Amino acid sequence: MLVLWAVIGAGSGAILTPTGNVLRRSSAPQDRPAVFAAQFSLSHACWLLAYPIAGWGATVAGYSVTWMVLAGLAGAGACAAVWFWPAREPVTLEHVHPADLTDLDHVRDAAATSAGYVHTHTFVIDDLHRQWPQQHRSAA
C-alpha cells in the first residue's frame, strides 16, 4: 500500500508542478487569478467525469476493466498533450502586430515593416495577443 501511495504521490507531483509553470508562463500577471480558476474548474470537471467511471465501472465491470479504461483515458490525455504542446518552444517570440494597432506603447521598440510592427518579447496570451502566433521569420 505504501508503494502505491508513493507512486500516486509522484504522479500527482509530476502533473501539478509543471501545470503551475505552464499557466504562469502562458498568462499576464493580471490574468493569472482567472487562468488558475479556469484550470481549477477544468481539472475538477475531469474529476467529475473520472469518479463516476471509477465507481460504476468497478461495480459493473470489475476493477481490472475499470483500471484499463481509466488508464486509456489518461493515456489519451497524455497523447493529446504531446501532440498539441510544442516540445521546444522559445520563451520569447518574434511576432507581428498589425499596422493599425492602437496601443503604440506596446510596439514602441518594434520595427515597422510592410507586414506591421515586428518585435520580440516574452509571449503571453492577453488583450494584444489573443492567440499563440507562429514565430515570425525576419527576411535575412
TrEMBL record:
Keywords, A to Z, come to: Membrane, Transmembrane, Transmembrane helix
Taxonomic lineage of this organism?
Bacteria, Bacillati, Actinomycetota, Actinomycetes, Mycobacteriales
**Key word Transmembrane present:** yes
Q: Which domain of life is it from?
A: Bacteria
Would the keyword Transmembrane turn up in this protein's UniProt record?
Answer: yes
For this protein, the parts annotated as crossing the membrane are 6-23, 35-54, 60-85
One Pfam family named in its UniProt record: MFS_1
The entry's protein name is: MFS transporter
